[in-house]
């Protein structure tokens, strides 16, 4: 009894294999860690499809839930903690390490593909139909194995998971050595630091536009730099003060106050 | 198509992961490459299970996933801890044990 690979599976294999390899290459070649994480997620999803095509529907679903769902999200959370823009430095600490690493990795690939490939030329798959039929399905079959043949390993897994959860809690926990500062202490520190303690002036005050890139105008008509968010200043996106506009506004305000006076 | 192609894909993914571990120096990226290698091994397990017609390979792949999930949790906690003390995620930074 053999399980031949039909045309549909062949197409699925080639599409998903190319995408998974692309994701793996993207993981290694991206400069930014976040991009690497997203490429890895692509690889994991394609591997899940390959598992399902390869008569392992249960593992395919577990792969989606555990890897793309939990593990990759955990990676992204940690990337947010560690800093999204944490990218590699290009300075080599060991001379020639990168070239040697690429060479050895490529040699490993050639060795495995050549060695395994030459022994797999005329292989046929027995297929899992008979093994699945014993217990009435793939999930039932794996369940029987876990709770009979692999029971000890399964029990050890539960101990491992508890240890891992506890270990992560202890490692990620930060002990507070100093007492939490009170509101009074925080306030004193803020005023004694010499920095302007209140809110910054909001943008657009006395100006014609209310947008964040319009500086607030001081009473003498000059723009207030403190009213523009610093990122905009750094990018040079501050809108220049249009003095004709300011004069218009002043005229309107004058007219309004004269009207009030005359009543 | 030959079912051995799955094994070849697994070998290619494993090698790419190995290159990543050797070449990259951001600890999190290195860690993701290790995950890629584990996944490649899982693909080989699943393919061998189908070739040999028994479910042991799939069960072992399931256990590998469980261990990998636990490993990610502890590993990432260690990376966060190192980042807190050294404010760097580079694997070249923690070299005190060398001396």
Compact description:
The complex is a heterodimer of chains A (263) and B (99). With 263 residues, chain A is an all-alpha fold.
Detailed description of the structure:
The complex is a heterodimer of chains A (263) and B (99). Helices cover 64% and strands 2% of the residues of chain A. Chain A is mainly alpha-helical and 263 residues long. Chain A folds into 3 domains: 1-85, Four Helix Bundle (Hemerythrin (Met), subunit A) (Up-down Bundle); 129-174, no CATH class; 201-262, no CATH class. Chain A has a two-stranded antiparallel sheet. In chain A, a hairpin with a 5-residue loop joins β1 (216-217) and β2 (223-224). In chain A, α1 runs antiparallel to α2 and α5 crosses α6 (138-147). The radius of gyration of chain A is 32 Å and the shape is elongated. The model of chain A has no long low-confidence stretch (mean pLDDT 85). With 99 residues, chain B is mostly helical. Chain B has a single domain (4-98), classed as Helix Hairpins, CATH 1.10.287. Chain B is built from 3 helices and no strands. The longest helix of chain B has 31 residues, at 56-86. The N and C termini of chain B lie far apart (54 Å). The mean pLDDT of chain B is 89. The interface between A and B is large, with 90 and 70 residues.
Class per helix and strand makeup of chain A: mainly alpha
Q: What is the CA-based Rg of chain A, rounded?
A: 32 Å
Oligomeric organization of the protein chains: heterodimer
CATH domain fold name of the largest domain in chain A? Four Helix Bundle (Hemerythrin (Met), subunit A)
Q: Please state the second-level CATH architecture of chain B.
A: Orthogonal Bundle
**Sheet having the most strands of chain B:** none
* Average residue pLDDT of chain B: 89
Strand proportion of chain A, as a percent range, falls in: under 5%
Q: What is the CA–CA distance across the termini of chain B?
A: 54 Å
Q: In total, how many beta strands of chain B?
A: 0
Shape of chain A: elongated
CATH class of chain B: Mainly Alpha
Strand order of the largest sheet of chain A: 1-2
Number of strands of chain A: 2
Most extensive chain interface and residues per partner: A-B, 90 and 70 residues
Poorly predicted segments of chain B: none
């Amino acid at each position: 009894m053999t399980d031949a690979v039909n045309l549909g599976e062949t197409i699925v294999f080639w599409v998903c294999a190319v995408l998974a390899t692309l994701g793996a290459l993207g993981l290694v070649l991206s400069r930014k860690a976040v991009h690497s994480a997203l490429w890895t997620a692509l690889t994991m999803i394609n591997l899940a499809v390959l598992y399902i095509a390869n008569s392992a529907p249960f593992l395919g679903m577990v792969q989606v839930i555990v890897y793309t769902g939990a593990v990759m999200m955990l990676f992204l959370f940690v990337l947010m903690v560690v800093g999204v823009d944490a990218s590699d430095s290009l300075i080599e600490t060991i001379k020639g390490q990168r070239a040697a690493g690429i060479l050895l990795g490529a040699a490993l690939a050639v060795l495995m593909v050549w060695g395994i490939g030459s022994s797999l030329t005329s292989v046929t798959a027995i297929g899992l139909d008979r093994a699945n039929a014993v217990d009435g399905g793939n999930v039932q079959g794996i369940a029987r194995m876990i709770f009979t043949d692999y029971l000890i390993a399964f029990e050890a897994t539960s101990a491992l998971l508890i240890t891992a959860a506890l270990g992560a809690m202890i490692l990620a926990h930060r002990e507070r050595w100093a007492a939490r500062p009170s509101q009074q202490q925080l306030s004193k520190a803020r005023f004694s630091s010499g920095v302007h303690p209140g809110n910054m002036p909001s943008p657009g005050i006395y100006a014609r536009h209310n947008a964040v890139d319009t500086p607030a105008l001081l009473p003498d008509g000059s723009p207030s730099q403190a009213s523009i968010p610093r990122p905009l200043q750094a990018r040079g996106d501050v809108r220049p003060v249009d003095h004709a506009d300011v004069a218009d506004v002043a005229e309107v305000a004058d007219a309004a106050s004269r009207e009030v006076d005359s009543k | 198509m030959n079912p051995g192609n799955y094994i070849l894909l697994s070998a290619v993914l494993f090698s790419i992961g190995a290159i990543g571990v050797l070449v990259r120096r951001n600890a999190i990226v290195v860690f993701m490459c290790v995950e890629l290698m584990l996944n490649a091994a899982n693909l080989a397990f699943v393919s061998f299970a189908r070739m040999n017609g028994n479910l042991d390979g799939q069960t072992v792949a399931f256990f590998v996933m469980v261990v990998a999930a636990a490993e990610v949790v502890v590993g990432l906690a260690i990376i966060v801890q190192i980042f807190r003390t050294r404010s760097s995620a580079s694997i070249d930074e923690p070299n005190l044990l060398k001396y």
